[in-house]
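Hi support team,

I've been running sequence recovery on a batch of backbones for a student project. Most finish fine, but this one hangs at about 90% for roughly twenty minutes before it completes. I'm not sure whether the input is malformed or the queue is just slow. I've pasted the structure tokens below so you can try to reproduce it. Let me know if you need the job ID as well.

Thanks,
M.K.
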């Protein structure tokens, strides 16, 4: 199965129906530490409903920090994080409170490049090529300048201790 395509240049890219139906499984596996390396679950209070929402997501290491990339753009979790002032609970085996700090657009390209590279370490060159194409609409070897032109469509958050 091909990955979800997030390469369209729109404000928000709704997840595929299959992804929404399987979200619970990703949350369960990630929460207990059985998901791929780097995968975590974030729990954030819904800005309208007040209910806790959980999402499995990759935390990408870049130069001593870890980052979350919103592949779907202005996704609901991004809006909820902003409304909560960045305060979320993160879990991979154990729970911890963290603060997500949104990066300005001009600082996102290196993290997007690292996201593509992380795909290569997890699944090889073919996986990285697929991720670059489906997630960002670029070649695996895209330059930082190329990634800077699309960075406004992908919110990026640095994970800081609470």
């Amino acid at each position: 199965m091909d990955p979800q395509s997030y390469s369209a240049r729109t404000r928000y890219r709704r997840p595929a129906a299959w992804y929404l139906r399987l979200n619970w499984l990703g949350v369960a596996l990630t929460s207990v530490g059985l998901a791929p390396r780097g995968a975590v679950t974030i729990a954030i209070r819904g800005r309208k409903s007040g209910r806790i929402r959980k999402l499995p997501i990759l935390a990408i290491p870049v130069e001593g920090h870890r980052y979350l990339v919103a592949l779907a753009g202005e996704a609901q979790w991004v809006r909820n994080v902003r409304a909560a002032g960045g305060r979320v609970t993160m879990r991979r085996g154990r729970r911890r409170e963290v603060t997500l700090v949104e990066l300005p657009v001009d600082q996102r390209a290196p993290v997007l490049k690292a996201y593509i590279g992380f795909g290569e370490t997890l699944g090889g060159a073919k996986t990285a090529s697929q991720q670059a194409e489906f997630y960002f609409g670029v070649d695996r070897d895209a330059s930082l300048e190329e990634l800077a032109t699309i960075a406004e469509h992908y919110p990026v958050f640095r994970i800081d201790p609470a």
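--
Follow-up from support: It reproduced on our side and the slowdown came from queue contention, not your input. The domain at 17-106+153-161 is CATH 2.30.110.10 (Pnp Oxidase; Chain A). No action needed from you.
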